[in-house]
Amino acid sequence: MQDLTKRAVILSAVPVTPALSAYLQPGDTVVACDAGYRNAAVLGIQPDLIVGDFDSHEKPETDRETIVLPVKKDDTDTVFAAKEAMRRGFDEFLLVGVSGGRLDHTLVNVYLLVMLREQGKRALLVDDYSEMELVGAEPVEIPERFPFYSLVNITGTARGITETGCKFPLDNGEIHCGYQYGTSNEVLPGQTAVVSVKEGLLLLIKDFPEV
């Protein structure tokens, strides 16, 4: 594995387009999870580590480090990959090819953001439609290039929510899991929206422009 000050890219099996290669950075350490190995080729990269039980992709014939997992296990291949990267000391994560397709896997992978944050890690999830990250007390900016964004509570009740620079501002708001009203807000023209949460966490989903 490479310099531990660099970022771990967890590459899972949901098909992606080459456009997501724009998120890759020099020095990234790429961990391909089972059929995520196919996405490495789409993005024009080689994985540094391959993990999986290889039930959705045959074990690659490669000299890259490979960890073969049992089929019967508690962690999905993607969750194992994130834990292994944490074990190896990585603090920043990019999750690619983890959302879309099977809803159960998508939900588990979205909650990876929570697991990583609870361990003090920084993480961004990207697919061909949006960026996703968690928002807490530290303000997060949303540039105008995102036509819509949504705030979804996935961890209980979030209190003290503030949104500025947007079509539907909020001051000291509250969102709980039983009533989600933070969908499809818009950044005001020429401005940058800013979101923060005093208590709890929100999933911020920033939608890419349609092409």
Please explain how this structure is put together.
- This protein has helices at 36-42, 77-87, 103-110, 112-118; strands spanning 8-11, 29-33, 49-52, 65-68, 92-96, 122-126, 130-135, 140-142, 148-152, 157-164, 170-176, 193-199, 202-207.
- The strands form 2 sheets. The chain has a 9-stranded mixed sheet with strand order 4-3-2-1-5-6-7-13-9, with helices on both faces. It has a 4-stranded antiparallel sheet with strand order 8-12-10-11, with no helix packed on it.
- Helices cover 16% and strands 33% of the residues.
- The protein contains 4 helices and 13 strands.
- The longest helix has 11 residues, at 77-87.
- By secondary structure, it is an alpha/beta fold.
Q: What would you report as the Rg, rounded to the nearest angstrom?
A: 18 Å
Helix-strand category: alpha/beta
The portion of residues forming beta strands comes to 25-35%
Number of strands: 13
Please state how the strands of the largest beta sheet are arranged side by side: 4-3-2-1-5-6-7-13-9
In terms of per-residue confidence, which ranges show pLDDT below 50 for 5 or more consecutive residues? none
- Could you describe the largest sheet, including whether it forms a barrel? 9 strands, mixed
First-last Cα distance: 37 Å
Q: Work out the helix count.
A: 4
Q: What spatial form do the alpha-carbon principal axes imply?
A: globular
The ordered H/E elements are EEHEEHEHHEEEEEEEE
Query: Roughly what percent helix?
Result: 10-25%
Overall pLDDT: 92
